[in-house]
């Protein structure tokens, strides 16, 4: 019963008060109300600002006590020095929860920590849970609900939910949602974790039927970590959890301390080995974190084995891609006789290997636009192949869309993950890619990233196979 | 005396015959003459095609013997079965060298190998050197000279030269030259290495004053490798050599055999340790290969030490970036008192660390557009800082170009490498980036890539410091 979890009200507020709301565009705070309006949040918005009659056309209140209705979520975004007083005077009987965006508490040292503890004490006494401080969230795309300092025009609904230690996603969030073609479900920042921790967030998202993939960025685990490991283990049985850990080195751990007051310890080896036992997928970099999110979101059906079929345009890339597979635990599939019979008519005047399949050679002898079609269909039908990694042809190359697209779209129905990469590495916003991704065929920037992502799917399959 | 090296004539031909020239746009061969015309090759072009009077307006010849002039380079791009006869009948007294593009020789097995050996014998007897077979090149941007199967409109002159085992660059070449903003000097494919090898190519480019960075993609080293190691060692003393090795695993080595007939062995560990002794910079993936090429091309001045200053927009990214530095051998710089004095006026109402510098916090309290200006200038002046990695602000963020650009452009004059990354990861073709890269400030897609590149510069410095 997800509705009974305390975070449900944070993600699905019917009303929100925004203390510090502004329509002054030189303040990042103006996005708080503006985004809710632009994106179409259906709940009630109560801007709180003693210096305004209204904010973006919505009646403003001098203080939160003037609001006569229940407030599911109170968002606080005012200077740190004024927060304690606000907290002391909240109308607790009317409010559901608090999201404390303001920074300048435990992350700045003892004095900040002391005020933060005081705030936590008052909230606890009043039975009110709180996100933050020093955290910018929550977001729930299905409710058109967003707390962000960045101007967002739309919030595409998806199945990936994020837990962030802090607002690292912020400056790239609009890019993630648009050109990166990643739809999200929910997002929560933890910040200084005065109250709500990764365990609460994981517990909620684990139960959330709208969340199919959980991506978690952490700088430290709060407490002794036993509960965290337990809930993580339990969650990965049902959905993939991708973990990105900041502060893995001494240098990084020091920065984490001044960033969110996190004791990251730099305990890299222990954390890694614990993580492995939980079945969580470790991302080494923010790049991997986002690409893995996309892979698991686009390819919900795991491969049945580790046998991969590869096709590239230049042959040299086939060699490098085979290396990447081997280094990442994927085995080169050996396509069967039926595939040979179907593909041999594409051969140059000599026999060529079926895997990797070198489209460069094929096209220089046989420029038929349905080479891709025949190849993909053969591999999808071949029981010796578990997944496919295929390089797209150069954009300048003549491809007839009707021949090119349909087989890719059959991959899902065949239960075989397929991932693509273009011959260039960036500029993934072309029409071909847009079309493919709209149809759940992910396109990654390079062979290295494509293979890493397919390997992550395979590693998760291996973990689950042990149960 | 670079002019006396036999490859000089290959890269600077005053005349070129193209056997297999065509103006049939359904054949990739039509690009061979078309590109030379479009890009403005100033030498003489002799298309050879018995079925054409002229190719793209240039008189065509029935066979190469009809050409009455000297031919610096004979390019052969006809089916494999016809090559031997052509080779048997070349007018050797008139020709400088041969580039054999055609594939289908040693890479397809014993029969192909036998014909290839026969061709090599005839060429050797006649004292003629040859590139290939199964190789698409050469290219020399300063001569507007290009042999390519892809349609190219321009060839930006740069200082990076490439040696490829095969035409892996081809489908992405136009992207490399345009959106990736990488200018090249020369490019040579080795293919099956019937005659010209990596040693010849390295020897030439090592001496070439127009080449400042050498990028070498290999599947195998021909012969016992001693000469290769010797020339590589000698070259890295004067210019960086980036090496990407295909066939590092058994799986990859098997593919290399059918790709260029290379005996790649998969002898990963031995190759790596030998490479390390030579001072060559190893790229693990094609991605790294191209990013390193860009880093060394844009940042010819190496850092004086390993102390890096970092600035990010979200603080969480600062933590991860500090981790990346530490994992890659870079130390967090400790900016001096002068930097503190200059930067403290940007601080929020509390003290914040100078390194990494968190622009997210800075901007939320002080939205002045010249925060970047002040920060970069301070770090460039600070003797405790050897290099800088700075994240660009979100594109939606108000930045005044006059405040933003100038300090970046001072980095070179200060002798400190600076590399940037945007808050999104792809789409690097924006105007800001175009401007910066035109001014030799490289922008990479992410912190992970940026730090890897700066670390590669630092590792090369460390190698050179031992002499």
Tell me the quaternary state: homodimer
Helical residues, percent of chain A: 25-40%
List the strand order in the largest sheet of chain A: 9-8-11-10-12-13-14
Count of strand segments of chain A: 19
Cα gyration radius of chain A (Å): 25 Å
State the secondary-structure class of chain A.
alpha/beta
Q: Span between N and C termini of chain A?
A: 25 Å
> Largest interface, counted with CB-CB under 8 A?
A-B, 92 and 93 residues
Specify the overall morphology of chain A.
elongated
- The count of helical stretches of chain A stands at 17
User: Which consecutive residue ranges of chain A, at least 5 long each, have pLDDT under 50?
Assistant: none
Largest sheet of chain A: 7 strands, mixed
Mean pLDDT across every amino acid position of chain A: 91
Beta-strand percentage of chain A?
A: 15-25%
Quick tags:
homodimer, 467 residues, alpha/beta, five-stranded parallel sheet, 17 helices
Describe the structure.
Two copies of one chain form a homodimer. Chain A has helices at 7-11, 30-39, 83-88, 110-125, 170-177, 198-207, 226-236, 250-260, 268-278, 286-298, 315-327, 337-343, 359-365, 371-381, 401-414, 431-438, 447-465, and strands at residues 15-19, 44-48, 54-55, 58-59, 71-76, 95-100, 129-131, 139-140, 145-146, 157-164, 184-189, 213-218, 241-245, 281-283, 307-312, 331-332, 357-358, 387-391, 418-421. By secondary structure, chain A is α/β, with parallel strands linked by helices. A seven-stranded mixed beta sheet of chain A has the order 9-8-11-10-12-13-14, with helices on both faces. A five-stranded parallel beta sheet of chain A has the order 2-1-5-6-7, with helices on both faces. In chain A, a hairpin with a 4-residue loop joins strand 8 (139-140) and strand 9. Chain A is elongated. The two termini of chain A are 25 Å apart. The mean pLDDT of chain A is 91.
